[in-house]
Amino acid sequence: MIKQKVLIVDDEASIQELIRFNLEQSGFDTEVASDGLAALEMFESYKPDLIVLDLMLPGKDGYDVCKEIRRTSNVPIIMLTAKETELERVLGLELGADDYMTKPFSPLELVARIKAVLRRASGQEQQDENEYKVGNIFLQVDTREVKVHDQTVELTRKEFDLLHIFMQNVGKVMTREVLLQKVWGYEYEGETRTVDVHIRHLRRKLGPEGETRIETIHGVGYKLRGN
Q1: Scanning 1, 96, 139, 145, which has the fewest C-beta atoms within 10 Å of its C-beta?
Q2: Nearest to 191 by CA among 41, 65, 90
Q3: 198 CB-near residues (< 8 Å, 6+ apart)
Q4: Mean pLDDT of 103-122
């Protein structure tokens, strides 16, 4: 069986080894990079299935590395940050990170999150239908294609997954906690801001259809208006 590959980017050797040990014990193949420039080179040669990316790096920081990678790839990225400010977390998500963890972290939780992100990315979840249409929004599951007024809309993996959940549950209020569990694959205590950031991006990309159909239910969550 081919092992899934994880690139670990961190300038602290102890963190590298902690993550590497736990991932390899869980059956992953790993490589490490200690700075931003090396991370970009390793990304091209190693072709990882997922990247664990520290924000504070010499050379290029994690934000710049994420931006560079997102120009050509939707490979899942989990960011590591030593700071707990909301601004830093939101900026990482804005740049295209799929998830983040704050140091110090539990290596077992990190492994669980990596597995959840990869499971979602590989499309292992069972799908009830292959095509959905709500208003002028069309979504096809197997090709991960989205169109609005017959024009293709490019979504990130998480944006697509959110829209898919909404279209499976038209007219139903989805709490932020439920969306976190369904899209991110685990309980995400107190960090519902993640959902808000991704939904804001989704609405913008869908244009007027997104703005009018994805309703905010204040104090609760969101719902997709039907026809």
Answers
A1: 1
A2: 90
A3: 93, 156, 158, 159, 162
A4: 84
